[in-house]
């Protein structure tokens, strides 16, 4: 049982890293409006935090990204990239 949960934990941490990398491309883009970049950077900080479990970090990030993805000023590439990160985070299970 321990190896199964350990394996799942590693998978979840890998999914978290992929989501951070995906979001970093939006945060680093000059095309992305400043307010959206700030929220994406804040989301990355939440995902990289150490105080919460992987599942809680993912849930908080999904909430933040869901709100920002509704912004009408968001470039389409950023919206699709954020949706990709959200999809990845939604697959995290504890």
Task: Please describe the structure with a list of short key phrases separated by commas or semicolons.
94 residues; mainly alpha; 0% strand
CATH topology: de novo design (two linked rop proteins)
Largest pleated sheet: none
How confident overall, as mean pLDDT?
90
Structural class: mainly alpha
Query: In CATH terms, what is the architecture?
Result: Up-down Bundle
Rg, Å, rounded: 14 Å
**Regarding CATH, which class?**
Mainly Alpha
List SSEs in N-to-C order.
HHHH
How would you classify the quaternary structure? Answer: single chain
The poorly predicted ranges are none
CATH superfamily: Ta0600-like
- What percentage of residues falls in helices of 4 or more residues? over 70%
**Termini gap:** 14 Å
- Number of DSSP strand runs: 0
Concise overview:
The chain is mostly helical and 94 residues long. 76% of the residues lie in helices and 0% in strands.
């Amino acid at each position: 049982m321990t190896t199964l949960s350990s394996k799942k934990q590693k998978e979840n941490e890998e999914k978290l890293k992929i989501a951070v990398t995906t979001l970093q491309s939006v945060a680093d883009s000059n095309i992305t409006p400043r307010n959206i970049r700030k929220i994406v950077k804040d989301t990355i900080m939440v995902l990289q935090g150490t105080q919460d479990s992987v599942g809680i970090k993912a849930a908080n990030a999904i909430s933040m990204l869901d709100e920002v993805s509704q912004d009408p000023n968001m470039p389409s590439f950023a919206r699709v990239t954020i949706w990709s990160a959200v999809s990845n985070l939604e697959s995290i299970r504890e």
